[in-house]
Structures are given as C-alpha cells and as structure tokens.
Amino acid sequence: MLHNLLNHPPATHDFRPEKQDVRPGAVAKIVGAITGGVERRIRSHFAGLGKILPLVEQHAVHLSGKSDLELKNEAGHLGLELHRDGFRDDLVAHAFAIIREIAGRTLGKRHFDVQLMGGWALLKGMVAEMETGEGKTLTATLAAGTAALAGVPVHVLTVNDYLTRRDADEMGPIYRALGLSVGCIIHDVPVNGRRAEYSCDITYCTNKEIVFDYLRDKLTLDDMGGGGLRVRAESLYAKDPRHSRLLLRGLYYAITDEADSLLIDESRTPLIISGSVVGREEADFMRVVIDFAKSLVIGKDFTIDLSARQVRVKESGEKKIRELVLPADTQWTGTIRKNEMIRRALSALHLFELDKDYLVRDDKVQIIDAFTGRVMPDRSWEQGLQQLIEIKEGCEVTQQQETVAKISYQRFFRRYLHLAGMTGTAKEVTGEFWSVYNLPVVRIHTHRPLQRKALPDRIFSDRTVRDCYLLDRVRELRATGQPVLIGTGSVAASEVASRLLASAGLEHSVLNAKNDAEEAGIVALAGERDAITIATNMAGRGTDIKLAPGVAELGGLHVILTELHEATRIDRQLAGRCARQGDPGSYEAILTLDEVILESGKGGLAGVLVRKIVPKGTPFWSVAAKRAIVHVQKETERFHGRMRRELFKQDAQRKNLMSFSQREE
C-alpha cells in the first residue's frame, strides 16, 4: 500500500534508487521466476477487489443528501484521516464514495462497480486490465483523488499531449470539487512554467515530458556536485539555490494509462538530453558517407533484415568500405568510425521510411512515434542518424549534439515509490510487468456484456486484388449506413488508402500524424451514420468513438485492419474502438502478404507453404498465409522483448558499477 508515501515521502531532490534488484546467477533467476510467478498469480487472482463495493455503498445514502460544500468539507476531513491512519479499507471506501458522488454531480458520470474495483487495484499497486471503452480515465480519478486527499502528489501519465490535455480538462471538475488542484504538462508548457503545474495535487502529463523534466532536474543537481547535503545547505546561504530551480517534487505515486505502451513498448528506447554542440564540419563527412552508401548494391554488398531492422554488410561491401578514401580535410578518418557511420547511412536509406518512421514538415525531419502514430516534436535520433536522414531528404542539416543525460523508461519508472497502471491489453506481457516493475496484473470484467463480433480474416497475395476487395467491402458497409474505421500501419499507408477511396468517389476522413491537430473533430464524427474514417494507430489508444443515434441498430462501428502491427496488443487496441460499453460492433482483417514474407523468406514453415507449395486462392493457402503473417509478428515481438531485456540488464550492470564507485547515475 501507500503507507510509506505518507510516513516517509521523498525530498524534492531525492532521486531514489530502484525498489528492487536483479538477482545474479542462473539458479537465482530460476528460483525468482518460479516464486515470482506464484506470487504474481496469487496477488492477481485473490486481490479481493470486490470487497470494496459494499463498503462504498454504505456511504451512498449518507452522501446523496449533502450539498456540494458539505461534500468538499467532508473530503477535507477524510484527507486528514487518510494521512494519519493510511489507506485503510473503510477510509478508502469513504473516499471512493465521495468521489463517485461528486463525479455524478459534476460530469453526470457515476462510477460503475467495475470502475470502483479498478480504482482499488490502482491503489493496491497493480495493473488493472480493463476492456477498451470501460472508462479507465474516470477509474483513475478514484485512486488519484484518494491519494491526493491524503497529501500524496500524484502523476497521471498517458501517451500523448492530446489525451493528457483532454483527460485533465474532463476530470478537472471532480478534483476541484474535492478541493484539490490539477496541473497539466504537455509539450507546449514552457520549462519555467512547469514548476507550478508539478506543484499541484494531481498532475496529468505525458511520459516523455516528465522523464525529460526529471533529467533536467538531475542536471541541475549535478551542476555543482555535493549531493543532498550540499543542496540542503544551499537554501541557507545561496540567493538562488538549486532547490528552487527544480521542476519536480519527487517521484511519489504514478498512475500510468495505457500501461503496456508506456512501461513495455516504449521501454526499449532510452530518453536522452543533448548538450554541447559538435562542430558542423561533420556534416561534410556525412554527405560523403551517404553518397557512398547509395553506391552499395542491396543483395550484393549488403542485406536487410526488415523484421529485426538490421543491415548486414557482406564481404564485397566490406571490401568497398576498406577501399573508400575520405577527403583529406575530413577529420573522421578512423576505420571504426567510418564503418559505423556507413552502416548508419545504410539504415537511414533503407530502414527508415518517409511517412512511416518520420515525416518532413516545414523543411524539418520529425519523428513519428511507432506506438501512437503521432509526431514527437523536438525529438531527434542520436549518433548522426538524424543528420543522415536530413541529408537523405534534402533538409537543412541540424547540428549534432552530445549526450549529457540519459535514462531508460524501465529505470525511471522503477524509481517511483508507488506505481500502478491500467490498460486494455496486458495479458501478453503479464510476466514482464512483474519481472521488471513488480506489478501484478488483475483482470476487471466488463460492466455490460461484450458485443464485439470478430469476422473471418481475408488474406490476399496481391495488393491490387486486396484493394479491390477492400473497396467492395467498404461500399457494402456504406450501403447499410454502418460507420467504418479503416486501420493502417503508417502515414503513407493511410494516404494510399485515402487515394483508393477517393478514386471510387467514397467520401471519408483521414487521421494521421500530419493532421493530428484535427484529431478531436475527426474522432467525434467517426461514429456517425455513413462515416468512413481512415486512421493510423493514433485512433487505437485512448480515443472514444461515440455512436450517433440509430447507429447501434445498424450494427455499430465496423473496424477493418489492413495490416498487422508490430505487436498483437496494438491490433487489439484498434479493434477495441468498436463495441464499447455494451454497444454492438464488429471488426475484421483484410490483409495482404507483404515483402517481409514474399521476398525476405520470413514466416516460418507457413511462409514456405504459401510461397512455394500451396496453390494460391485455396482455403488452406489462406490459413497458412495468416499463420505466416502472425509468425512474423510474433518474431518481431520476441525481438523487441530481447531488446528490452538487454536494456534492463545494462541498467542493472550500470547500477552495480555506480554502486561500486560510490556514485549514483
């Protein structure tokens, strides 16, 4: 529970070590896996979440007759009890009852029983797996409001600026009616204005912004050295002590929305702050390198592994690299440096695609988040990759910078005193939640019976044939008036689908990273009768497509997946846009075998069957084709899992080294 937050809160400057260590040795790992798995299952299946419901109901009649001011005063007195006695079941139930009553009055939304159970799971330090559309945003107000009443600073974290601002605005009236303050941190909030937002009782923020603010604070503390004692002493003699320049108040309690995305998917990419500028003369070297990389022949000089996103240089390519003579005035002539940069140039040319991995806006290369489909402003790739892609696209080359602060998501989130999460897709990574963050996953049943229908998948070997079938299917649905959401895997794919529908005279809307500012308006109309919406995975997380009157009788929203994503959880999130809160809905996949299977030889045994043995168009071919596609998806998931485990090991090793040298990284 959260007793340690109440009794021993961290100081503002306390950058705490992780709460758990990695056990060394093979035997210890096996023992840890067995005992951890047993403990995880016990905590998940016997969480006792239902016992909170009758306790909450005991307060319902008592609270319904009170005025808004009386509720606010009662919440204030309850906060003192929570702070003094901790999160006892009866006190938590009382807080939940007050928050539910206030939510009904301010928003017209009264928490369901399953949401009360979800809020209780969050306070217990669990990941609540709730079906998409079950109201996770409202559920978070129970745990966040209860903890904040007790005096615990709360961070509610989500995946992008749009959802952060929306959730803070929509849930703000509940908190303010409790007498609590609400802050919001998105990209546009200036650094010098963030301290006030973080000082609020509850702060909504994106995962990336809070990590970068944490790194900024760490740099502030490291400027003069001296550790915690020096920081405390500065407040006595310095006119501008570092303590007053810090943004965060510490890492107390975090509730992560879309926890699998924040804690799992994005954890393989470390967050970096760059500082000292490297001279621009390196740009000339990069131009030479990328011109040379263009001269290498794919298949002869190098190969590409699309599923692992790796470039492998063959012997003929190695020979050409050794023979490459750089200009005399180029200072980067070392063999290792030259080889590394050439491989990076090949990656920039062949692995990073325009309108998939990045887009060009205002003559600038902007990265697209692979998990949310949104642009990440002011983010850049490191080690020269950003500059190589800028040269590739003919943009102005930005100055390369050196890393001055770096941390992984795994390391950052393990520093919170109390961590919890909620998502609709956690079962595939339950073990990783436990092994990395010590978070058990508990499944919360739906408020109403789920009416989502899964239609049979259709697989095509030729993209042209697939597109013809897709058009016919959309026309068929349009004739009934049923709204359609077409899911694509990239900006480029969404634009191709848009041109396809436009050529057939089908009016539609497109939601991708290029028009993310219009997201709210597009999503608001996606559930209208006759609506056709094409979207990247931007529409897969946090968005709520409400059905217009009469649409439920037509079958609700129908989702079409035109390609599978890197993880099955992203596909499930996109399918979860339909049939929310007991509404009807359906989804299907209309896929084509892509180059990964047809040209790169992937797909396992099923891939061999569809390429060489089974006749196309037969029922068995369709079954084998689907298995081949899923095989590639699973291989990609396993590859990313290995990357995360490797990063986790590196964090543990780095921690041990810092401990040995009596330093903390």
Give a concise summary:
The chain is 47% helix and 15% strand. The chain is of the alpha/beta class.
Task: Provide an overview of this structure.
- The chain is an alpha/beta fold and 665 residues long.
- It folds into three domains: 279 residues, 3-Layer(aba) Sandwich (Rossmann fold), CATH 3.40.50; 121 residues, Alpha-Beta Complex (Pre-protein croslinking domain of SecA), CATH 3.90.1440.10; 142 residues, 3-Layer(aba) Sandwich (Rossmann fold), CATH 3.40.50.300.
- 47% of the residues lie in helices and 15% in strands.
- It is built from 26 helices and 21 strands.
- A seven-stranded parallel sheet has the order 3-4-2-5-13-1-14. Strands 15, 16, 17, 18, 19, 20 and 21 form a seven-stranded parallel sheet that branches.
- β3, α10 and β4 form a beta-alpha-beta unit.
- It is globular and about 80 Å long.
- The C terminus is likely disordered.
Set down the secondary structure blueprint.
Blueprint: H1 3-7, H2 26-45, H3 52-57, H4 60-64, H5 68-85, H6 89-106, H7 113-123, E1 127-130, H8 136-149, E2 154-158, H9 161-177, E3 182-185, H10 194-198, E4 202-206, H11 207-222, H12 227-237, E5 253-257, H13 259-264, E6 271-277, H14 282-295, E7 302-305, E8 310-313, H15 315-323, H16 335-350, E9 358-361, E10 364-368, E11 375-376, H17 385-392, E12 401-407, H18 409-413, E13 418-423, H19 430-437, E14 441-444, E15 451-454, E16 458-460, H20 463-480, E17 484-487, H21 491-503, E18 509-511, H22 519-525, E19 532-535, E20 557-561, H23 568-575, E21 584-592, H24 595-598, H25 604-613, H26 619-660
Parallel strand pairs: 1-13, 1-14, 2-4, 2-5, 3-4, 5-13, 15-21, 16-21, 17-19, 17-20, 18-19, 20-21
Antiparallel strand pairs: 6-12, 7-8, 9-10, 10-11
